[in-house]
Design goal:
Strand content: 15-25%
Structural class: alpha/beta
Helix content: 25-40%
Shape: globular
Number of strands: 5
Strand order of the largest sheet: 2-1-3-4-5
Length: 159
């Protein structure tokens, strides 16, 4: 009997890769709505709480980053003002608005965004963690290549 298993089925996807893909998908959705090239999601106890993308272009709100949207929506969904016990995923190294998350997982780095011609605050998560004496755990560069391609996808969409 022939197997229907493909090579892709044999590749084990880690939880970090799975949820980073959710953030990537949110970013792609945002690009489709004319927004910029960033996506994020919040996970608690292995379950997705929310996924979000930037929505600052259409609303002319420069602070409506994917990170901010995900944090606000997750706090509302969880009915509390912090994200203790949660993991935060972002397609690019996020702004320093962490709301008490335990762990931050990101794909592209600030330097990757700058190399793609996208202006960024040049303070890295590692620097922010040190400056704020934060206990947050950082997991960088998960699906980095897939996340950096979002910059070019956004540019090709004429943004």
């Amino acid at each position: 009997m022939a197997s229907n298993t493909t090579h892709a089925d044999l590749i084990e996807t880690t939880e970090d890769e799975r949820f980073m893909q959710v953030a990537i998908d949110a970013c792609v959705e945002g690009i489709g709505h004319g927004e910029s090239c960033f996506g994020a999601c919040v996970v608690r106890e292995g379950r997705l709480v929310v996924a979000a993308y930037n929505d600052n272009t259409g609303k002319h709100w420069p602070t409506r980053h994917a990170e901010v949207n995900a944090i606000e929506q997750a706090c509302e969904a969880l009915g509390r003002g912090n994200l203790e016990g949660c993991t935060f995923y972002a397609t690019c190294e996020p702004c320093p608005n962490w709301a008490g998350v335990e762990r931050i997982v990101f794909g592209a780095t600030i330097q990757d965004a700058m190399d793609a011609g996208i202006g960024q605050l040049t303070v890295t998560c590692e620097q922010m963690r040190g400056l704020g004496h934060s206990p947050v755990t950082l997991t960088p560069c998960v699906l980095r290549e897939e996340c950096t391609t979002l910059f070019e996808r956004w540019k090709r969409a004429g943004r």
